[in-house]
Design a protein that fits this description.
Length: 361
């Protein structure tokens, strides 16, 4: 983190001023990592106008100092947030912000007990709003994760044949990503075949592929703390006419969504650019999820490309564009690329080819 920590803290402090808090307790692990570099499972940050402190316990003594060199590290024996609250109170914080989307009631109470004289203020998206715009170095990490998934996908495609099990194909993909340097899969690799491909978030099973199946593969890697996300759809040995038609439709919708990306574009309008094609073709009710989502430290983060979403895209946003059509009898088709938004368009970070016609393997 090092050189990235200072400008991030400066931007966060400006957002804190806008929210009228003179202290902020950061408890979401992804936000802690973004601001400080700390990756332990138990920790919290206290940010004030002149202080940046990391609180953790003795298990992380060495790790905290190493990963978060810009933060004053404090060990707390138990009741972490009580300790954070005490330091905030003693430092004279009057309005102490906390992340309402991440702090369960019991831990909020702990914080209140530690800082009885401070007013606790619920905040949302103070750090997430910063994370949505990636620096060139962050984009490079995401691209690295995308490359690992590209290589894994190519290997998985070579294994697609009648009799192959979904689970074995997923495992091969994950193994390859890890062996080539991924810290982990960004999420459980999805290999969904036949009727199971109609489930947008299918679990991978022991089902064996059969001729005529559609196969949806959704895969991402995590490298240097950052995720990637990509989906491709294939047909095993042959594809029925409706599957070819639906694939072509999803492909055109994916291209239309991608073409609508640019700095200043409204998220809901990008969604509509893709969705309108699917609706006009009569498949609107079979595309039941948003067009895409931000990707970074977490695989789902801001901004959301959803219906009627009012947020405007900014250069540096990294988002997926992933329309899908899911039919109970035929199965599903989803195509997903990862892109970084630029002032006048977007650059694709996914390296795997996206065929305009369904690839038959
Ligand atoms: Zn995905
Ligand atoms: Zn996705």
């Amino acid at each position: 983190m090092g050189e990235e920590a200072k400008p991030r803290l400066a931007r966060l402090r400006s957002r804190m001023r806008d929210s009228e808090v003179d202290g902020l307790v950061v408890s979401a692990p992804a936000n802690i990592f973004y601001l400080s570099g700390f990756r332990g499972s138990s920790g919290a940050l206290l940010i004030t106008p002149d202080r940046a402190a990391l609180f953790s316990d003795f298990r992380y003594r060495l790790q905290a100092a190493e990963q978060a060199p810009d933060f004053a590290c404090t060990e707390v024996e138990r009741r972490l947030l009580d300790g954070v609250g005490r330091v905030a109170g003693e430092g004279g914080v009057r309005r102490l912000g906390y992340e309402q989307g991440h702090l369960v009631c019991g831990r909020r109470d702990e914080l209140a007990e530690g800082a009885p004289d401070a007013e606790l203020v619920a905040t949302s998206d103070l750090v997430e709003g910063l994370r949505a715009v990636k620096s060139p170095a962050e984009v490079e990490r995401i691209r690295k994760a995308a490359r690992l998934a590209d290589r894994a996908l190519a290997h998985m495609v070579s294994l697609l044949c009648p009799g192959a099990r979904e689970r074995d194909i997923a495992l091969e993909g994950e193994f390859l990503m890890r062996r080539e340097g991924a810290e982990a899969a960004a999420f459980d690799v999805i290999v969904a075949s036949g009727p199971r491909s109609a489930l947008p978030h299918a679990e991978t099973t022991a089902r064996e592929l059969q001729p005529g199946d559609l196969v949806v593969i959704d895969i991402g890697a995590r490298a240097v703390g950052y995720c990637s996300d990509m989906t491709r759809t294939f047909a095993v040995k042959s594809a029925p006419p409706e599957a070819r038609e639906v694939y072509g439709l999803v492909y055109r919708a994916q291209r239309a969504g991608t073409a609508a990306l640019r700095g200043g574009a409204v998220c809901g309008e990008v969604d509509a650019a893709a969705r309108s094609l699917i609706e006009e073709a009569g498949y609107g009710e079979h595309f039941g999820h948003g067009l895409g989502h931000g990707v970074g430290i977490e695989v789902h983060e801001a901004p959301r490309l959803g219906r009627k979403e009012k947020t405007e895209l900014a250069p540096g946003n990294v988002v997926t564009v992933e329309p899908g059509v899911y039919l109970a009898e035929m199965g599903g088709v989803r195509l997903e690329d990862l892109l970084v938004v630029a002032p006048e368009g977007a650059r694709v970070l996914t390296g795997s080819p996206m065929e305009p016609e369904i690839p038959i393997v």
